[in-house]
Amino acid sequence: MNQNKWSRNRRNRYNWNKSRRNKYRWNRLLCSVNKWTKGRNLYYGLAIAASLLIISGLLSSLTLREEEKVKKQPDTSGRHAEEGQEPQLTDNPNIRVLIMTTGHAGIVHPGVEVSSAAGLVLSFGEEQQEIEPGQKAAFAPDDERFAKGNIRIQAKDGGEVTLDSIQRGYGVPSYAGTLELRTTAEGIVIINELPVETYLCKVVPSEMPASYELEALKAQAVCARSYAYQQMAEYGYPEYEAHVNDSTDYQVYGNSQAQEASSQAVNETQGQVARFNGQIVTTYYYSTSCGKTTSLEAWGTEPNEQNQYLQTVEVKDEEGDYERELPWYRWEARIQVQTLSNLVGLNTATDVGMLQNVEVTRTGPGGVALQICATGDKGSVTVDTENKIRRALGGSGYEIQKQDGNTVASSALLPSAFFTIGKEGDTFVIKGGGYGHGIGMSQNGANEMARKGKTYIDILTLFFPGITVE
Predict the structure, then answer these.
(1) pLDDT tens, 396-426?
(2) Are 65 and 306 in contact (CB under 8 A)?
(3) Residues 156, 119 contacting (CB under 8 angstroms)
(4) Which DSSP string corresponds to 417-446?
(5) Segments making up each domain of the chain, as ranges
(6) What average pLDDT does the structure give for the chain?
(7) Is 329 exposed, middle or buried (0-12, 13-18, 19+ CB in 10 A)?
(8) d(Cα 160, Cα 176) in Å, to the nearest integer?
(9) Contact 229, 223 (CB under 8 A)
């Protein structure tokens, strides 16, 4: 199994989404300031704007997304309800997913082609147009139909619409619900609007192999649903009224087709989410543990009452670590000094010269590296938090040997931040364990637990102490 396919770094997504939210909030602040300053001295208006920006920045830096309450209730049109309300899980509301281009390279398509074996119904403004079964409908950004409004596309039989102009992991993808096309100055934006439970049937197999045990798939379904409901509290793309996109920025959707086992897992957990202290929470996951998990301290976040469900736990039973026989449970990398010197210089944008020593100077819960110091003949550099540490020591040019003896080429990130590092002659030796960020649920750990008869409730309550599944 290609571990990169199933290992997701939620911290990168959090940073990216926070940036988008801050930009959106700043635009709203500017509008408010412009109204306030109308007819008044410009100096006072700018002073107020600066103050508002500072306050907004402080609030943003103090508040993690996983600690935010679900504030708005999405209805079946995908729009927001009043603040202070939580999603009604039994309603199966619609989620609006921005569909990215091939390879998830961007959000704007130069053109769009769609088809359906049953035929299509196009709606734009007050008009409708039917497309014959099997016939493709093509759209360019200057299509005259956009003059009458956004174009909404559905299959005549209520089935899926094939998006012929892009590729996904299994080939040409198709989508349930409605495809909404919006023209922009750069091209066309595509939003797929569909019930959240239907959405999850193509999220779960894209995030976890459908060949995994049913109870592991059910645990994944609850994690995915909890995350989706949090995202539906606000628009990730307010300019397009879309909650998420279909890439690793959020959850991967539609890169794999729906599978019987994963759809069964979604159906048998319908509406169920993870709660902590009564609130729906973000249940992070990754590929493989080293026998222990870590906390949000790995990302520089101090423990508090809201994130106590994300703490270090031992992934084992009375017989030992659940994942002790898996390839990525333990691994080793032997890197030439020159190679690692080049990588550290490139990845940290600091010329430390030829490395003399790399030391883990601070560890966190579970033994995760929280800080390293790399010293060379021209200086030194200190790197904090697991993702930045993994990136500083990652890159091409060396091999990693898994405990089963197989080797793989190094990639942009070190497999995990659970490691020790030493030097043998002109070679740095990194010995580590696990694959991924180590926060929350190990997907392979979940599968091994399911193999031993554990239920999805057992799995979730081990990895997320104190939660309830409701």
Answers:
(1) 999 999 999 999 999 999 999 999 999 999 9
(2) no
(3) yes
(4) S-EEEEEETTEEEEEE--BS--BSEEHHHH
(5) 3-63, 89-268, 327-432
(6) 86
(7) buried
(8) 4
(9) no
